[in-house]
TrEMBL record:
The keyword Transferase applies. Keywords: Kinase, Transferase. One of its GO terms (molecular function) is kinase activity. It comes from Bionectria ochroleuca (Gliocladium roseum). InterPro entries: Fructo-/Ketosamine-3-kinase, Kinase-like_dom_sf. It holds the Pfam family Fructosamin_kin. It catalyses: N(6)-D-ribulosyl-L-lysyl-[protein] + ATP = N(6)-(3-O-phospho-D-ribulosyl)-L-lysyl-[protein] + ADP + H(+). Its EC number is 2.7.1.172. This is protein-ribulosamine 3-kinase. It is an enzyme of class 2 (transferase). Belongs to the fructosamine kinase family. Signal peptide: none annotated.
Length: 337
């Protein structure tokens, strides 16, 4: 386990019986007889459970997530739409979302998925990168725009998925939103604000504008959006990966690899190499490492906002932003093509 992800991986494990709300029961198939619902798995933001029921003496299981609070309903709606499109693209590598809604208790909200048995540890690298590459090649956004048709959430953080004509515009808007949420969570930092200005106005254009100028073009592909090691597992009985807990959008395929950089280990490096053996790096290739660093900064900003009591996340965020500002802020005019 990477030292960086220790905090995120310390999720609460759920146990014990769960009393099912009638509105959840209403979403089961006709003739279903509930046999039990018990805590199953672990999560940072919601309660998770295995729901068992019988139809004509045949046992079936669903995976249930229950969220509490005012953000719960838009969170399950965003996850449902994210996983619906991902499952349409790679059904072998993702659970099918079945239903979502609010409980009789208006503070509680739910989402149901097909149930999958998982094994311990991460999936083999060849199978994992093949699944991600399939996700990025099956669908293209026919409108050619970047964004998503609904607000999605990374943890409890609402993403700015406003439709944009360029990847640069979309990424700037997303970073502006996350930096605002990070400041809301931790309080203002004069140093971070000072770094953010050239980062947003100079570094991002310098690294992303060349992707869409001088005859180059990015096709927006469906992105999982939060594909860190806590949101992928190996399916029991096979080597196939299972990707879940998505915060999807249509974007640049290389963004998906941003969560590999904080791992900083051989597994992550082999994943990136294996992925790009299937899907080549975007031009200009010489900017690839800096782009990967740029995309990882959004991960650092998310974590800094989600875990405001952990100082290392803001520290890492500022260090990485400063590194790119030092390298690229002065030559940003080259991005104008």
């Amino acid at each position: 386990m990477s030292e960086y992800f220790q905090q995120q991986s310390n999720a609460k494990t759920h146990y014990g019986d769960i009393d099912l709300d009638e509105r959840i029961i209403d979403r089961l198939p006709q003739g279903a007889v509930v046999k039990g619902c018990r805590g199953h798995g672990a999560s940072n933001w919601n309660r998770t459970a295995r729901l068992d029921f019988e139809i004509d003496d045949q046992l079936h299981s669903y995976f249930l997530k229950i969220l509490t609070g005012p953000k719960g309903r838009p969170m399950v709606h965003g996850e449902y739409e994210s996983m619906r499109l991902i499952h349409e693209s790679v059904p072998k590598f993702s659970p099918m979302p079945l239903a979502w809604g609010s409980c009789i208790d208006p503070t509680q909200h739910f989402i149901l998925f097909t149930f999958h048995k998982l094994s311990q540890g991460l999936p083999p690298i060849p199978q994992f990168v093949n699944a991600v590459a399939q996700l990025h090649t099956v669908k293209r956004n026919p409108s050619g725009k970047f964004g998503f048709h609904i607000t999605t959430y990374n943890g409890t953080l609402a993403q700015d998925n406003t439709w944009c004509d360029t990847w640069e515009e979309f990424y700037v808007k997303g970073m502006e939103r996350i930096l605002e949420l990070e400041e809301d969570a931790r309080g203002p930092s004069r140093e971070l604000r000072k770094i953010s200005a050239p980062f947003l106005s100079k570094v991002i254009p310098r690294l992303l504008r060349p992707l869409e100028t001088q005859g180059r073009k990015i096709d927006p592909v469906l992105i999982h959006g939060d594909l860190w090691i806590g949101n992928v597992s190996a399916q029991a009985g096979s080597c196939d990966p299972l990707m879940f807990d998505a915060s999807a959008f249509w974007g640049h395929n290389e963004y998906e690899l941003s969560t590999m950089r904080p791992l900083n280990n051989e597994w992550a490096r082999e994943c990136m190499e294996g992925y790009h053996a299937l899907i080549p790096k975007s031009e200009p290739i010489e900017d690839w490492d800096a782009r990967n660093s740029l995309y990882a900064i959004r991960t650092y900003a998310h974590d800094s906002a989600l875990y405001p009591d952990e100082p290392k996340f803001r520290r890492k965020l500022m260090e990485e932003m400063q590194n790119l500002v030092a390298q690229f802020a002065e030559d940003h005019n080259e991005a104008r093509g």
